[in-house]
């Protein structure tokens, strides 16, 4: 029995393009983001993957990415569960701020700590550790049992909510996961053993 879990970060959003801290705000995909999502669908179609169930966040850019992927693989209308547990990390008071402007205002070192430390949140926001504390319980309760039951599952979410999952799946340290880059619209295909451990991982990023 195959146990397939595919994780995919949303395609480029309008705020990615503008280099803004996005968090829980709801910008749409850019034209490039739409193209990235369609390409992800093509890649999964080439692998002949079909899904039994989809999960996504409560944010438009992830939902739209998932819709475009499912359309490319001929699975429009697949049952999809949406939950804010899979939302991007909340950037709090710096949400909507240009990253270069944030560096000018708070200093390069401070912004780097907020972006790339594991457990230091920006003011009013979440650290990656705090993001993991909402993502992982949801994964264990709602997603993993479906995979272990033999269903092929796709999760369309965000850079940091997916990092939280990847950290656990690949047994990475906080230092290792902070260096892990996730391309927009690039699927990562996991095959899991019956205990939920990873047998193989295939990153479809260029």
TrEMBL record:
Pfam families, A to Z: His_Phos_1
Pathway(s): Carbohydrate degradation; glycolysis; pyruvate from D-glyceraldehyde 3-phosphate: step 3/5
Statement: the UniProt record of this protein carries the keyword Secreted: no
Example of a GO biological process term: gluconeogenesis
The keyword Isomerase belongs to this UniProt entry's keyword annotation: yes
Site residues (Transition state stabilizer), renumbered to this chain: 158
Sites where the protein binds substrate: 9-16, 22-23, 61, 88-91, 99, 115-116, 159-160
Keyword annotations from UniProtKB, A to Z: Gluconeogenesis, Glycolysis, Isomerase
SUPFAM superfamilies: Phosphoglycerate mutase-like (SSF53254)
GO molecular function, one term: phosphoglycerate mutase activity
Entry EC no(s): 5.4.2.11
SMART domains: PGAM (SM00855)
Enzymatic reactions: (2R)-2-phosphoglycerate = (2R)-3-phosphoglycerate
Active site positions: 10, 88
Domain of life: Bacteria
Similarity comment: family membership: Belongs to the phosphoglycerate mutase family. BPG-dependent PGAM subfamily.
Annotated function: Catalyzes the interconversion of 2-phosphoglycerate and 3-phosphoglycerate.
HAMAP family: PGAM_GpmA
Assembly description: Homodimer.
Protein name (database record): 2,3-bisphosphoglycerate-dependent phosphoglycerate mutase
Organism: Roseibium suaedae
Lineage of producing organism: Bacteria, Pseudomonadati, Pseudomonadota, Alphaproteobacteria, Hyphomicrobiales
Gene symbol of the encoding locus: gpmA
């Amino acid at each position: 029995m195959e146990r397939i879990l595919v994780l995919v970060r949303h395609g480029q959003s309008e705020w990615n393009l503008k280099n803004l801290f996005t968090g829980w705000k709801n910008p749409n995909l850019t034209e490039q983001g739409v193209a990235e999502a369609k390409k992800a669908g093509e890649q999964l179609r080439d692998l002949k993957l079909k899904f039994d169930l989809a999960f996504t966040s409560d944010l438009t850019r992830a939902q739209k990415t998932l819709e475009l992927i499912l359309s490319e693989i001929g699975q429009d209308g697949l049952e999809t569960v949406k939950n804010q547990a899979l939302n991007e990390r909340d950037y709090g008071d710096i949400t909507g701020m240009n990253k270069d402007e944030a560096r000018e205002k708070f200093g390069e070192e401070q912004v780097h700590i907020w972006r790339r430390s594991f457990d230091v949140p920006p003011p009013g926001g979440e650290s990656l550790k705090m993001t993991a504390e909402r993502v992982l319980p949801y994964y264990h309760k709602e997603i993993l049992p479906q995979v272990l039951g033999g269903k092929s599952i796709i999760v369309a979410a965000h850079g940091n909510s997916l990092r939280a999952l990847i950290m656990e799946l690949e047994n990475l340290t906080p230092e290792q996961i902070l260096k892990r880059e996730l391309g927009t619209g690039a699927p990562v295909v996991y095959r899991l053993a019956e205990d939920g451990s990873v047998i193989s991982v295939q990153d479809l990023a260029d």
